[in-house]
Amino acid sequence: MKSNRITIRSVHESEIMEMLSMLAEEGIYHNEELYVLLYESYPDLMIVAEREGSLLGFVVGALSTEDSGRILVLFVRRDYRGMGIGKRLLREVIRRMVTIYGVKEITLEVHEKNETAIKLYEEFGFRKVKKLHGYYNGEDGWLMVKKIMP
Ligand SMILES: CC(C)(COP(=O)(O)OP(=O)(O)OC[C@H]1O[C@@H](n2cnc3c(N)ncnc32)[C@H](O)[C@@H]1OP(=O)(O)O)[C@@H](O)C(=O)NCCC(=O)NCCS
After folding, report:
1. Ligand 1 center–CA 137 separation, angstroms
2. What is the pLDDT of residue 149?
């Protein structure tokens, strides 16, 4: 099975441009300086899925307070979706937030129409807690929160 050969690991700084290109291929443009800053602050929360030297997806996390983690981006290349990579990335970033940083909760924002992502997050124990009116260029989103049980 293809996914057996996929490695989930921390990103290397030299791969940040590749992450940004992956997004740009789908018309999503994120700021390089922000990614470098996040990498410098939380290198262990920038996690990639790699196969034979190519990046297939990634997740970017950070802490918003001492005990609250935040997932900023979760992305898998279109051709590799539905293979369990998103789940593996999410599982790993949650595991690291809990074991390395001891967070008590994890938050994220998601477009209200992104049913695939919402379903995935709900499977991992995230709950919709607040409607974010106009958060995505005038369209609504959800703030989702996962409480970490002691
Ligand atoms: C959301 C995303 C990261 C999921 O990644 P993925 O690698 O495809 O996810 P997985 O293969 O681990 O599947 C997770 C769930 O997504 C859903 N899913 C995956 N592929 C799907 C498809 N082709 N059609 C419908 N649902 C699908 C399923 O519910 C699946 O759970 P299940 O296997 O228990 O049914 C990916 O779709 C993506 O990059 N989307 C664009 C960016 C985005 O929306 N990010 C989240 C924004 S907050």
Report:
1. 22
2. 85
User: Residues near ligand 1 with C-beta < 6 Å?
Assistant: 74-76, 81-87, 110, 114, 116-117, 119-120
Pick the CATH number of 2-103 from 3.40.390.10, 3.40.630.30, 3.40.47.10, 3.30.470.20: 3.40.630.30
pLDDT by 10-residue block (mean), the chain, 150 residues? 78 96 95 97 98 96 97 97 97 98 98 97 98 96 95
Q: Which of 6, 77, 81 has most ligand 1 atoms within 8 Å of CB, for mutation?
A: 81
Helices (H), the chain: 16-24, 32-41, 85-101, 115-123
In the chain, ranges of CATH 3.40.630.30 domains: 2-103
pLDDT at residue 3 in the model: 46
State the pTM of this model.
0.94
pLDDT at 4: 60
Number of Cβ atoms within 10 Å of the Cβ of 90:
23
Mapped onto helix, strand or coil, the DSSP state of residue 125 is coil
For residue 138, report the distance from its CA to the centre of ligand 1, in Å.
24
Number of other CB atoms surrounding residue 110 within 10 Å: 23
